[in-house]
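Please review this one.

:::
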Amino acid sequence: MISPHYQWDFPAVANEAAAKEIAETFGVSELVAKILVNRGYDTIETANAFLRPGIEGLYDPFLLHDMDVAITRIMTAIDNGEKIVVYGDYDVDGITSTAIMTWALELMGADVSYYVPNRFKDGYGPNLAQYQRLAGEGMQLLITVDNGVSGRDEVAWLMNNGVDVIVTDHHEMPAELPEAVAVVHPRHPEGAYPFGGLSGAGVAFKVASALLEEPADEVMDLAALGAVADVMELVDENRAIVAMGLANLKEDPRPGLAALLQTAGTNQADIDSMTIGFTIGPRLNALGRLADATDGVRLLLADDPEEASALAGQIETLNRERQELVATISDEALAQAQTLTADPVLVIAGQGWHEGVLGIVASKVVEATGKPAIVLNDEDGQMKGSGRSVPAFDLFAGLDGHRDLLTAFGGHASAAGMTIPTANLQAVRDVLRTEADAQGLAEAGLPEIRIAAEVTAKEFNAQNYEQLQVLAPFGEGNPEPLFAVALNGVQNVKTMSEGKHLRFTASTQVGSLPVIAFGRGSLAEDLAGRFESIKIVGTMSENRFRGDVTYQMMLTDIEAAGSLLLDWRTTRLTRQTLAEPASYIFFNKKHYEQLGPTIQAPGEAIYWEDAFNRTSVGTMAFVDMPEELSQLADLLKFVPAGRLAPIFYTKSPKYLQKMPSKADFAKVYKFARSFSDVSLRTQYDAIVSHLQIDRNMLTLILQVFSDAKFVTIIDGVLNAVPAPQQVILEEMPSYQRFVAQRELEQQLIYSSTSELETLLTNLSKQES
């Protein structure tokens, strides 16, 4: 079987009448209307605001707390020619915030410069040493963007030393806010702004709009970048900002972004929110992770196409370096994760790992394992890195009470950064195991995804795709609709990008559907098997290639019922046969004792009777032949397995052995009557040659004659029995065992993969 990564929710339409009214009013399909209603847009007014985002969706910037104070102080600084510094951050939201605020101040004629802290030298947020340096260079007004709300002490130093501070931020607020000239924050406790979900760039955009006394639409594209890249919910005001910003980006991208998209090979016509999330965002973030994010602000503010092109080229090179680092470290981290399977929270450490990409690596480990993960670089007795979590485990809470084990720590429920003394590694693993138990991580269900509808392949078409685009831009808070499709099977399974990704053709009752599965290359071997049932969930995607337009699914999740069959049957049993990671089941005790010790971890050898002590196994490989099907049936019913891998090796297959005829029986009996005291130990080959008979057939006939009391074999000496009783030879036990073994081999060894799969499936369903 293939287990899903998510719990699938198929919600009923909350209000059928509202969906019908919305479909008729706006001319959208019933499906789109139902999606709107289920997402809370169940009136004409709310649906209109969602479907037609525009300038009217923006709130008055002066509704933000302290905005009037901030603008008054900024205008005073501009009028007096004061030296203003914009202090930003090194991620995309921080870079775009810095660019927006700097652009607006320059447009107003201010004496302004900007500073973007270095991830490795300055760290995140307010930095007193840099504040003091900037003050020493004549700074008279500091404006923070996308940071500052946590800098109470640092801001106090500036204010006490004659430098005014305006904080603009959107992060979680501490109990005590900085005593700055103004704190502009959409969730300020003394404010009443209608929407608290702005990004740092969104707050900077509101300040710019207040300065200009009109929406700062020239930097709407940058505000959109910040919102999407910082994974803000694309609802309410953010939806309007991102929709208009994407339109600007698509119609007339600024030189820096045009150059960045060109180096990335992205067509301007294809720009959407995914372009920010997967093309622009990672490239700008690469600067902060590996180099100096200041170049990102320079790129966004560049007017000269040549300068923009040169900067974009440098960023593209850095991004490739980032991708290579992530790929290398991820492989090492995932290999280490395989040795920590008993840990509910993975703490993975290595040496020589670039700290700038460890958060990305941690995310990949979480995606691959479904477990919270912390990835650390070990250097000079300290381990520094990042953690990412799953919805069921609050990573911040899990470590917050154990700061005595940590050198530095900060973050929130789903992500955190930390430094841990190397000597405390095991202690941290131990407390996380305890915290996971306390939070009930093991009992938590899978994270939930909402399915818009269950459809067939034919629904993946141009009409439906175009209809769904009225719901865009997609992102956090407004995800692309997910569709479930029941399959008859899969074909043309192929991996891409050195096995990382997957593509296949899904067969349904009404046609086939191309499927792309990013990051699921490991499923390729699984999908080569067969299942009782299989369902996939994903989004509808348009694919343009050489003028042709087709529609495909981008896979989100998959569920396959019935054990997956990997056909490992072979006529030769070697160490290589037993080299794959699996639970190898032996029916023959002698084989188990001889070959079991040769199986290397993570593989394991299990005698079949001991397998019933297991509640489940991953891949269950049947090394040799059972004595009868009932043994196999019991295993299939009582030991659940993710995959079945039949080997069913036998040294001397009975199925290939010729059945003895009456003439063969007569020939051997005549020989036994003609000679006495024949030594089978010394004369066997001579007998085979004399009778011109197959060696295995002779053995069977002698066993049958012994059962029938036609002959005696004492100490290897053969003699005929005078006047034996007449019997039916085919009813003798040895003959019956031979026939049964032939039939068993025919079913298990000499059947087709499909026939064997059907047999194993039926055996697993038999009544106990």
In short: Residues 133 and 139 are 9 Å apart (CA to CA). The chain has six domains: 13-43, 57-221, 341-438, 449-561, 565-650+749-765, 662-743. Residues 305-337 form the longest helix (33 residues).
